[in-house]
Amino acid sequence: MSMQVSHGALPLIMGNYASKFGVNLFMYGNSAYTDGKNITIPRLDFENEEEMEMAFGYVAHECGHIRFSDFGSIKRAIDESSWLMNLFNALEDVRIEYLQSRDWPGLTKSFSFLVEKLEGDIVRCIRKTDDLTSLIIIYFSAFGRFNCLKQPSRKSLRAASKKLSSYLPETLISYLNGMVLRITRCKNSDEVLDIAQQITNIVRKFVERINDDFNKKECRQSAGDSAVTGDDATHTGCLQDAENRFREQFNEFQRRSLEKGCGVQLSCFDFDNAGFNTGLNDDFYSGLSEYGCSISGDDVEKMESELSTIVAGMKEEYPGVDGHVRAFKVPCVDALLEKTSRNSPNARDIGSLVVKNSKPADNLDLYHSVLSDNSLRCNISSLVKGYESWHLGNNSHGRVLDVRAYYNSMEGKLTDRIFKRKVMHRAVNTTFHLLVDISGSMSRECERGGKCRYEVANHMALSLALAMEGVRNLDLRVAYFPGNFCEYEEVYRTGQPLVERATYFDLRPRGCTPLAQTLLSCISQMPDTDRYHRNIIVVITDGEPDNYSFAESMIAKAEAKGIEIHALRVSDRLKLRDLFKSCIDVKDASELPKAMTELLADRIFAVNV
Prior knowledge:
Blueprint: H1 9-19, E1 24-27, E2 33-34, E3 38-41, E4 44-45, H2 49-68, H3 71-80, H4 82-103, H5 107-128, H6 132-148, H7 154-164, H8 170-180, H9 189-229, H10 232-259, E5 271-272, E6 275-276, H11 282-287, H12 297-313, H13 333-342, E7 347-348, H14 365-372, H15 375-393, H16 403-410, E8 430-437, H17 453-468, E9 474-481, E10 489-493, H18 498-501, H19 515-525, E11 534-541, H20 548-560, E12 563-570, E13 582-586, H21 592-604
Parallel strand pairs: 1-3, 8-9, 8-11, 11-12, 12-13
Antiparallel strand pairs: 2-3, 4-7, 5-6, 9-10
């Protein structure tokens, strides 16, 4: 029987779980990571049992990194190469999950569930990839999880093993497997990093050797073709060019070895009048000992046979193994959670319930800028006050003359009804939410004005707040999305002193575009509408939300509740879908102030609204 957890209790349970490890837990956005003090996982559906099992498993995994991983080792791996970093991360994941399961055996189920969910995606990636570095990372991750953690990664291990054997000798793979089996006995991250470095160096050397053999084979075939045609000059020239090229490669390789102080003399290229020696001599294998690889004499003959088979089937050289993982992103828990989050229509945000995250700027530059350039603030203030005065001026009996009634009285028709009767209007009883997008794309510079998009948006938001400050019956709230470790940050609400809150409007771009989650929060905070009250949401953004269908459903929900939603969008590069019914598009962010004035004048604070 599964345990049902209420929406209100779940954040407390997960927050308490994370607090056991002395960290903060956040659920927002589309990515999962930890910086050693905070854990962030993507938003998920609280009512979906599988998604919550994934959430608990990932929190436990990240807590393991905080408990057992050395973030200095992670930085060193990143600095050296992305391939080393990905391999080190795969091996370190095995170690920390082993240690976590040892201390809390119940976590074994959660970790195995995550791996089981990944299997299908990993097998599909293995089948379509031709990138050796990606294949190696997936293989050793699956091997470590299956053999060290007893996790259900048999299918991905079998698929990766079959494909990897066409790139590297099975004898070598078996040797490297023995190195991976030592992962659970590593005392710290540095020892794991050392194993990862040994694996990368050994694989790199074997790939270089296999490519050299392939080049020799190609030259030999070319020379043989020339001999058949009787072109002795071409034959001799081909051999001479090949010999010169390989001698240059050997000299460079020997120079690097001597610089490292290993003093190993590698005679990998043996030349004679007949051509090239295709065998690998003992010096080549002894040179591998520099990287901790010690292959016994019994395996040398078998490995040479496997190398010959691999070279015979090669159509071109293997690409370099020092670069980044090119063909695809290595399947990982992060990618699975991102996919689940995007497809989860009932996702919830618990980030804003964990801690107050809004961080003010260090200065009042934005506030002084708005005060010195107050044209936008004055325009908005005039619109708001005009709208307010018009409504209040038509609400009182005996103060506004009814022109038609007065004209009839001049014709002798006696009446005392020469004033307009009291009429109830939709007055300025308004809840107004301004939502400002500060996703990464808002850092782009405007074509005019020399400012970035977010700077224009921040200026507009503070100008609007100053213009609406003190207006009767107007509840203003300003929120930015995404927040700092949460979906959004509420930087201001009516009643707070703007002088003190002005620095909270000066925020920098970061992260994704969680519009749907921000709308969900706004809708829940708004009172019920009636004929005397308006609820208005204005969105400033420059792109589409992370979850388009979820945002679309939130807008439909708002409209069903009588909430008006308007948008100002910067759409200079992307053709955006019609998410908003009431929307003003501008090509450059410098046009946003003019567009805001137009929106307020024509669609929000017009006297005929």
